Predict the 3D structure of the following.
Amino acid sequence: MHPHMVIGGDNDGVKGKSLDRSTVRRVLAYADRYRSMLLGFIATLLVSSLLSIVPALLVRQIIDEAIPASNRAQVNSLALVMVGLALASGVISLFERWFSARIGESLIYDLRVQLFDHVQRMPIGFFTRTQTGALISRMNNDVIGAQRALTGTLGQVISNAIVLATTLVAMFILEWRLPLLALALLPFFLLPTKRVGRVLQALTREQMEHNAAMNTTMTERLNVAGAMLVKLFGRHDDERDGFGERAGAVRDLGIRSAMYGRGFTIGLTIVGALGTAVIYWVGGRLAISGSISVGTVVAMGLYVTRIYLPLTGLTNARVDIMTAMVSFERVFEVLDTHNPITDAPDAVELVSPTGHITASGLSFAYPTDSNAPASLEAGGAPSANAQADNPLVLTNINFDIQPGQTIALVGPSGAGKSTLISLLPRLYDVSSGSLTVDGHNVRSLTQASLRAAIGVVSQDPHLFHDSVGANLRFARPSATEGQVRDACRAAQILDVIDALPDGLDTIVGERGYRLSGGEKQRLSIARMLLKDPAVVVLDEATSHLDSENESLVQQALATALDGRTAIVIAHRLSTITAADVILVLEHGQIVERGTHTDLLATGGLYSELYQTLIRGEASPA
C-alpha cells in the first residue's frame, strides 16, 4: 500500500474543525442518486473481504487434517477451492471497480456540468474579478477531489472497517490470545504514522504551491499573447531560468517526499514483520505445549498482516473524511454563488421584436460586489469603502430610439459609451431608472429572447479555437452553408475565406490569431448578420479596417441594417455623419443630441470631437 494512503489527509488543515452538517446533507443528496450502485459497491467490498479470509482457514485445514492423515484427495480439493476463491475474488474485484468507476465518473459529470452551467450564466462582473485558472481548478481538481471523497475515501473507510472486523472475528474464533498480542503492537504503527505523516503533508502542500506557480508560468507564457511578449522582449533565457527554478523546487521536494515515504514504508514493514514474528514465536510455543494446532499458528500469521494497515487507516479516518469534504465545500462555494441577473419568475418572451428602445432616468454604477467567492478573486474581497470606489458611471440617461433608426454614440474615452450599450443585453442591470425594448422593461423579458433580438459586433471580437464555419454557426447552429456564405459575402469576407487552405473548415487559432484584425472584424460582422437580429450594436466595429475595406463593409451594413435599429459607437466620420441621431456623452451624461448638421452648428463638444476626427483621418498613415 502506498504510504500516502496510510498516512491520510491534512491533519493541520482540519485540526479543530467539525463536519458541517449542511455539507454532509448535500453530499448525501448527491450520493442518494447512486444509492443502488453504492449498495452494490459496499456488497462487493463485503464479499471480497469474506472471501479473503477463507484461504488462511484452508491452509489451517491442510496442515492440521490433510497432511497428518496423508489425505491427498483432501489436499487436491482444498487446493482447487483456493484456485476457485482466487477466480471468484477476481470477478468480484471487477464488479467492485465497475461500481466505483460508474459512481465516480457519474459524479464528476454531474458536478462539472452543474458548475459549468452555473458559472457561464453569471454576470460579466463575476468574470472581471475572478481568476480563470482558479475557476478551472474548481471544475477539475476539486470536482475530482469530491469524487474521490465519495468513492475513494468512503470506499477505503468501509473496506478497512470490513477487513478489520472480519479478520479480528476470525482470529478471535481461532485463538483469543494471539489477536490481543497483535493489537498490543498497534502503537508502534500509529506513532510513526502521525510523525512522518505531518512531514509528508507539509512537503505535499509545498509541492502543490510550487506546482501552482509553475502552472501559472506555463499558462501565461505558453499562449499566443504571452509567447509574443517574451519574443518581443527577448527574455527567453530569463524565462527558462525562472521556470527552471520552480521546476527544480518541485523536483527536490519530490525526492524528499519519496525518501520520507520509502523510509516510512520500510519502518511499517519492519513493525509488521515484528508482529508476525511475535505471533509465530508465541503461537509456536503454544503449539509445542499442545494448546493450539500448528495450522492455527500459520493461519494467525497470515491474518496478522491484515489488521495493521486497516487499523492505521481507520485511526486517520476522521482526517481523511474532513480533508475529502474540503473539495465538496469548494465546489459548493461556487455553486452557491448568487447570480443577480436572472429571469424574473413572470418573465415573458420578446416576440417579433421591432427594435424600439427607450431609456428613462437611467443611471448606473458598477456593482460593488462581484458575487464571486473571495478565494476566486484576484484582488480578494471588495474593500469596505467599495461604494466610494464605484461612483455612478451613467447619470439620468434619457433617449427614445425608434425602430429602424441608426443612433451614434460619441464622446471622449471613458464617457460611458460601451457601458451604456452593455445594459441593453443585460450584461449588467441598470442601477435606477428603466431601459425598455418594444415597451418591455428588459428585466421583465427572458434573457434568451432579449439577447436573441440583439446582435453585437465588438471592438475586439472573440473567436473560438475552432473552424471558421463553427465560429460563424455559433450565431445560428442550424444555418445552411448557403446562408453562411451569404452572410460572409455581405460582410465582404467570403473571398478571404475561400482563399484559406480549408475554406470554412480552416481552424482560426487561439482567439483567431491566424486572421488579421480587419478579417476578424468582418468575420464577426458576418456572424452578426447570420444571427439576423432586430437590433444591431456596433462597438467600434470598423476600427481595424483600412479605408477600402471599411467602405465595402459600410456598404454591406447599409443594406444589412435596413429596417433594423442600430446603435453605433464609432470614430469614423462616415458612420457618425450617416446616423439619424447622435448622442454625445461626457462624464456619463448626455450633453448634446441631434443630427450631425445640427450639432456642428452649436459649436459644442461634438464640434470639437469632429474636428479632432477630421485631423486624425486626414493625417498620413
Confidence is low (pLDDT under 50) at residues 1-14, 379-388. The two ends are 71 Å apart (CA to CA).
